[in-house]
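Final report, closing paragraph on structural work. Over the funding period we assembled a curated collection of sequence-structure pairs, and we close with a single example.
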Amino acid sequence: MSSLNERDLNNTRKAQMDLVFFNRVPKVGSQTFMELLRRLSERNNFQFHRDAVQKVETIRLAEDQQQEMAEVISELPEPSVFIKHVCFTNFTKFNLPTPIYLNVVRDPVERVISWFYYVRAPWYFVERKAAFPDLPLPHPGWLKKDFETCVLSGDQECTYTQGVTVEGIGDHRRQSLFFCGHDYECTPFNTVGALERAKFAVEQQYAVVGVLEDLNTTLSVLEKYVPRFFEGVRNIYATSAEYLTKINKNNFKPPVSEHVKDIVRRNFTNEIEFYQFCRQRLHKQYLAAHLPQRIMTGSLN
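Its predicted structure, as stored:
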């Protein structure tokens, strides 16, 4: 790892407005981060905005929808935070000022297991039914599925095939999609093309991509690289950690064996590479911010 330069790793300086766009990946602890941002908005005097709950959440938008969303966000008062489940959207494409892009990732296999049980949790359907009474209830057989049997039986829901595209809300396999963007080339599962596009976006556009498994490092980097919004985040988390770690926790999720996880990992090679790429970048940002200047400008062997 060479030339750890904090300025080179700080994309916050590229932002053209005082606005954070958190296009959150599902099941990466984003509810916890939203609560932190809500509390930080009071402490650091910025506005907090999140997209309304939708009956059918579409994360990949047509170009006119992208532009409409970007225009709405751009018109928010500064400083603000806007949070939405949606793919990376390049504001400059629509001649709009660039926001501060943020997101969080998680081990992709753990994440797909979490999603599998999240959409089957009883409270999930109670909340959805309350918001949208006309939604049909799922089939009992689908609700009773367990992840291990789903994988070992070759069930289509738990078959992760290289290059296959499965559109719709039910397909949350591709964590990299939230960074790759809205183009169709981003949709095939576990492809090199989507991986490289996602890496490029992270490296060139995102101020910080946090890692759920490295929460302390993530909070430290956020506080250092996006201080206008995240100053004091570590103190807020430290005083409320017990509550924050329970947000959206699914007590209905049973353990999954390492054997089954290993089977799934074989088909998640590029998704795992993307996760490791984000993790390495986060650690580089942390080191650059904390190493003495004499070391930062030199070379690490």
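Residues 294-301 have pLDDT under 50 and may be disordered. The first strand starts at residue 19 and ends at 22. We thank the funder for supporting this effort.
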